[in-house]
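Continuing the series of single-chain predictions for the mutant panel. This is the parent chain; the variants come on the following pages.
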Amino acid sequence: MARFLPTVIEGLDVNEEPEGLVVYDPATDQVHYLNSTAAIVFTLCDGQHEVADIAAIVAGAFGLEETPLDVITACLDTLEDEGLLHNLLQ
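Parent structure:
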C-alpha cells in the first residue's frame, strides 16, 4: 500500500526567522517565506512522518482540539507546488 511520506528536496538553504523560516532554493533562485505553521510542517517533511502524523503534531503544537488534516494537506500541496517537496506518494 502506498504511503504519503513527504520529504524536503535536497540543497535548500533554510534559515530560521522569528516568524517562521526563509527557504532559498538555489536551483530556481527563489526565496520562500514560511509562517510558523508552514515551518512546522516543512520541518516534519523528513520522510518519516505521514500526513496524518504531521497534522496531529501541528494540532498538539497549537493546542487544537481537532486535527487540521485539510489545512495540513493544503499546506503540503502548496509546498510541493512550490518545488520544496518530493512527490508525496511513496
